[in-house]
Amino acid sequence: MPKFNPLTLLFFVIFSLNTYSQKKILQAKSTVENIVIDGKIDEEIWKTAPIATDFIMFEPDNGKPISNSKRTEVKLLYDNKAIYIAALLYDDEPSKIARELTKRDVFGIADNFSVSINGFNDGQQDFSFFVSAAGVQMDCLATKAGEDYTWDAIWESKVKLTDFGWVVEMRIPYAALRFSSSDKQTWGLNFMREIKRDAQKYTWNHVDTKIGAVIAQEGILEGIENVKTSTRLFFIPYTSAYYQKNDSGSDKTFKAGLDIKYGFNDSFTLDAILVPDFGQTKFDNAVLNLTPFEQLLSENRPFFTEGTDLFSKGNLFYSRRIGGQPNYYPTTGANEEITNYPSSVKLLNAIKISGRTKSGLGVGFLNAVTDKTYATILDTVSGKTRKELIQPLTNYNVLVLDQRFRQNSSVTFVNTNTIRNGNFRDANASALLFDLNTKANAYNLYGDYKYSDVHDITNYTGYKTSLNFAKTSGRYRYLFSGKYLSENYDINDLGILYVNNYHAAYAESSYRIVNPTKVFNTFKALQDINYEIQNTTGKTQEAWYQIDAKATTLKNNYMEGLFQISPINRFDFYEPRVYGRYVYIPKNVLGYFQFSSNQNKAFTYYLETSATKFNENQRVVYFINSGAKYRFNDKFSLDYSAQYTRKVNDRGWVDSDNTNIIFAERNREILQHDFIGKYSLTNKMTLNLTVYYYWSYSENHKFFNLQNDGYLTPNSNYILNKDRNFNSWNFDLSYSWWFAPGSQLTVLYRNYALESTNIVQRNISTNFSNVLNNNPNTIFSVSLRYFIDYNSLKNKH
Questions:
Q1: Which residues contact 692 (CB under 8 A, 6 or more apart)?
Q2: How confident is the model at residue 280 (pLDDT cuts 50, 70, 90)?
């Protein structure tokens, strides 16, 4: 009898040739007739266009055909400039069609219709365009990793409400898409309709929720042939004016610049930003950070958020490194003090090139240059000042090569490079990734190998590798994962990594329903186990087991409950702030619960709460987060939320001297308020209010010395005041008007302030008064961006 070879079974599983159910095909019809986007669909050519119909429910009752009273009919035309889509969405109760007005890319409580297009028909990336019943546009790049709504395209749409339902008409220029240069095009295509009041979504081509991959289950668009597209060259000039005032005085600033987008062909695009201006981007939430790690900040700058899916592969690129805080701190003498230390580095310019070839090879290249930055240092005796370089002229590069194949698999190479002028640190990091799926997307094998090379005072290299195997279809699914990070693996010059020098194993199993039951619309249960061991010492740094259940009721209320236990003692290798030292973490258990009411109601609310109990000296953490939103009408809504955390007998690092590492036992409280108001004048004009207030303190009541074995012993001699009291305030009131496709006028009033002391103040009103009176900054700005299509200029001459 021949011996059983487990590799043979693995090969069979991974490369199984299971097939999908038959995909629907829609034929596009060419037109030379001028199509006016007015929602009327009265041009003659529409009468002869093939119809996409017979939509099928995606959720909650997956696979159920749409009723005749909600039938949906879609047609598609094309010419040398764009594709045109007409959708008739029938509804036997048209007065109940939800149509909340929001700003762009915010769905709100509104019915919507979308088209998702994959110009390479490779099952891995969609360009998706949504229109709500209120006429609001949303668009995104959709991949296996998720949906990126920071991407904005230039396209047209018009909605009309009728006595039978509503009508959508769309014009999507080829410039908003990516596709091959073939004479005959074959695209992946799906349409989706959401009926908000019933919490139902329907798709044209059936998407089976028992299969994890959604994009790979779309239908086919054929018939687009011999299109001669126009030059893809766009100019976006802008001008901004700022008035800033604080207790130190006032300042006026005027800026002007230009962004350029150029399409080399129908697949590749160059984006260049000249004289950057990010003054009106969303503010960063300032917090009291007592951890050994930097605060992870969201990217709010459009250039670094729009169309950057290629650059996110491998997680080697953290865009806030570019133009972020300086990397170096100046050396001062005995009589010197720093009078000015800039909080950010000036970005001089940036370009990115991205696209995909006919054979499925994606190419991404990003380059950015930041300016030299100096700190100002005062000699307190002589009164003279000097400048010291804290960030040299720096060049950042990212290169990505991503080869897709078999419509659901890929191999990717990523390289990031940071070069600082002069005798400063340089760094390079590379990654090789693979993502293999069976043809039916039932199983997934993926992993990576990453390598870092740092040139500093001492040069060092490191690596990270992982291997993962998952069942990704059916009601029962599972995942097995393992990874190893070496001691010197370091990607923090252009990426972000908190923890290295460990190996870990992770396993997950889950069960879900794919159709509603008598109790739930959706239900999913998971159990996970994770175990991490530090390489050098062999000590456990993380170990937990958890069970988690998530459900949506028949009334569309959401509930989640989680229980996690860490049953063994662990050690933290970063909290001591000294290389090679570590501190003990006791066993603990955590319980979590969340409830959210039906978001389609005018009044909605949510509550989430958790408690963590440590096996140490009454050490416990309580957390509660609650909020409510009320929609007064389709234009006006208010949203308020509050988060509160209390840490009793928390322990953490407070100081180091020549002989000891000092820890403290402390009580902490954290309170955060968020208030959001929205008033939409039209579907292109909104007023938005965002208010953020954060307060936190840390009060020490006992001190310890850290021993070499990671445990703490009392220190009764330490007397320095290391308490902290921190307040942060931000008030944003903005007016936004999309007065033409891609063109926007924005007016912003911003007031913000920070206050930090070592005197704990527990009275909330006193804290609030203190931060408002602590040299608040006021900014008033007006920004105008105008989108210019080169072809429109050319046609005028």
A1: 283, 285, 672, 673, 674, 728, 729, 730, 731
A2: low
